[in-house]
Every structure is written in C-alpha cells, then in structure tokens.
Request: fold
Amino acid sequence: MEKLQISLIGVPIDFGQMRRGVDMGPSAIRYAGAIERLEAIGHTVIDEGDIHVPNAAKLEVHPKLRNLGAVVEACSQLSMLVNKAVKQKQFPLILGGDHSIAIGTLSGLAQHYKNLGVIWYDAHADMNTADTSPSGNIHGMPLAVAMGMGHEKLTSIGGDAAKIKPENLVIIGARSVDAGERALIKEKGIKVYSMHEVDRLGMTAVMEDALQYLKDRKVDGLHLSLDLDGLDPMYTPGVGTPVPGGITYRESHLAMEILQESNMLTSAEFVEVNPVLDTKNATANVAVELMGSLLGESLV
Ligand SMILES: NC(=[NH2+])NCCC[C@H](N)C(=O)O
Ligand SMILES: [Mn+2]
Ligand SMILES: [Mn+2]
Reply:
C-alpha cells in the first residue's frame, strides 16, 4: 500500500444547519485518535489544524440560506487549503463540521481534477437549492452547489464553473430524499444506491458496481464524502439529522476496505459528527475506525 502524506484539515462549523455542536466535530475526531491511527498505518500526517470560522451573526444573512456569509467564508478558505494540499501531492483529509463544508472541499479539488469522481455516503442526497430546501440549511445543498446550482455566492467559490459532473457522482445509503432532490436525480440520471440496493445487492456488489461505474467514466480522482448519518444511528448517534434504517458498522468497514483496495481514492472527508448529541464519543470513534479501514489498516 502506498504511504501517503495526509493533509489533515479541521473545519469547525455548525452554521450549515440548526443543531449546535457539530462545530466540535474536528476536536472529537482528533480526541478519538485520528492522527495516531493514521500514523500507525505508516502514513505521514501534516496537521493543518482547524480553519477559522467567522461569527455568523456578523455576516450576511439570507431568508432561505441560513448563515450564508459564514458558510461562504469558511468554504472559501477550505477550498484554498485543499487546493494547496493537492498541489503539494498530499492527500486531503477533511474533518467536519456540518456537510456544508463539502462546497469548499469540492471547489478545492476541482481546481486540479477536471473529471473528479465522488462517492457520497449519506442518508441524504444533499442536493437542495434555496428553492427546494425544506429547511434553508446549507448542509442539505452541497451537491447542488458543486453541480453549479444555487446561490451565486456559493457556486462561485473557487471559480464559476461547475465542480463536478452529475454523471461522476455516486450516492450510497440514501433513505431520506426530498421531492426537489428526487426530481433532480431523475433529470440528471444520477447514480444512487439507496438502502434498497444496499439490502438487495449487498455492500460488496454495491461498491464493486459503483467503482466500475466510475472507472468507466474515466475519473481522474476520487473523493469520498462520508456523512456519519449514512450509518444507522444505532452506531453513530451523534449526528444532527439521524435517519433509521441505515448502513451497518460492518457494511461500512467493508465499503471502506473495498475503496482502499481499488487504489482510486485521492481525498476524503468525514462530516456531521456532533459531540453534543453523541454518547461517549461513539460517533467520532466510528469515524476514526472507518478512516483506518479506508486508508489501509488490515485486520490480520
Ligand atoms: N448533510 C446532512 N445531514 N443533510 C441533511 C439534509 C436534510 C434535508 N434534506 C434538508 O435539506 O434540510
Ligand atoms: Mn446526511
Ligand atoms: Mn450529508
């Protein structure tokens, strides 16, 4: 296995939604031993620390985009850091924070990867715009923004062009999809392995199929965006928008191991860990264990 230079970037933001506390996610994941775990595999970790997240109350507010100004600021900074890491041939590993940060991550990656593949491991499709969102929460919008849809202040971070192509995106674990998102998935023909497919085909087939699909698309990089609410809340209770009937702990490790074996992965992010809602840091612990499987830990 290739030993990586991992650029670890924390994004302590909870402005993309309403449950306070997810801004403590990066600390919780660090306390759960992320760095030690990655170093034990043989990787080098360059810890960039946490980016500065400005006070939302002092920045632009928008009736349908909660804390717009703060999210734009944080994502712009993150985009630059991710871009810098990729330029230096490092592997960006981003710790959230709520899922709005993926706007910054994908923007930074898109400066380099012109045909980026994305695996979105999540109970949700995160593909709303201000017009379709039931909540006004930007953490439910990053995929729409990355495809070039949504408020100009969000879509223009790191350049106006769309950051990902709809046909290079694979969603795994979906089970709570809003009407507007469903319409967009249909319209764009986006590949979704919902819980139905996970149950029916099993995780091995889902992952092998997903990776073959992305290989056929000739992607030049592969990003994993893992929302801890993709797993069933019995394993990861510390998330702001839990949805029952999720992916199991074992299926998730298997998915990470298959991703590792593929040798395709070029970046990853772990989001929505909310210590305030967690029990004994269980969710951060799962995040770190999954990082281990994803980045080459072996059982024997
Ligand atoms: N990253 C997340 N946990 N997203 C949850 C989004 C929930 C819902 N679809 C919304 O737009 O508000
Ligand atoms: Mn989610
Ligand atoms: Mn999400």
Notes: Strands lie at 5-11, 44-50, 91-96, 117-121, 169-174, 191-194, 222-227, 267-271. Residues 238 and 278 are 4 Å apart (CA to CA).
